[in-house]
Amino acid sequence: MVVTPEDRVTELGGAVPHTTNNRMELTAAISALECAQSVGGPLDVYTDSTYVIKGIREWIWAWRRRGWKTVEGNDVLNRDLWEVMSSLVSGRGSAAINWHYVRGHVGTPGNERCDAIANSLARRAPVDLYSGSLVGYSVDILDVPDDTSVPARSSSPRKETVAAHSYVSVVDGQPTRHATWAECERHVKGRSGAKFKKSVSAADEAAILRSWNVDPKDL
User: In angstroms, rounded to a whole number, what is the distance separating the alpha carbons of residues 28 and 11?
Assistant: First the structure.
């Protein structure tokens, strides 16, 4: 989502089949930067992706020096998206971009809303994307953590992981589909015999449920 100095909010969203978390995190940042191209002055970008922040701030320079190769000599993954993002960042000239890290699933309103949009679209569920005044927006998007520094442990790109289609659980024989991992964890916490897992596609979701002797139609 993008908030302009004129207090206008624009929610963005999209879905791509058979992709990875890293590509979707990059795509989200690129879409936001493209939407904010007409905004002058510094930009503050908030993301729960250390991959995006570390990549654009640090790793990309070494990748370029090595001809888009990793330290191990492998091709850099998602080079196409990194080059698009780099072009957008460079295109702002002296207008700085301040990158802020926010932890996911800890209740930050804007981050929770982004997660809900992403999960709904991944499941091909309908979602209304807001476009209008900040005053009329139901999410307290300006409520952000005081500390938005990147965790020191993020020293290298993490392994690509496939984006979630859904999170499913079974408690007392009753299957439930969840939009987020945090929601799934809350549902099963303290429940004896509960089962829960991330699925990466509709077929995977059905296979998981069948492995638990649950009919997918019961969802």
Answer: 11
Question: What local confidence, expressed as pLDDT, does residue 63 receive?
Answer: 95
Q: Is the pLDDT of residue 154 over 60?
A: no
Q: Where are the alpha helices (DSSP H) in the chain?
A: 21-35, 50-54, 60-65, 79-90, 109-122, 181-188, 202-211
pTM of the model: 0.73
75, HSE (Cβ side, Cα atoms, 13 Å): 4
Cα–Cα distances in Å, from 7 out to 10, 30, 43? Answer: 10, 21, 14
Nearest residue to 15 (alpha-carbon basis) of 129, 112, 118, 132? 118
By the 8 A CB rule, do 42 and 97 touch? yes
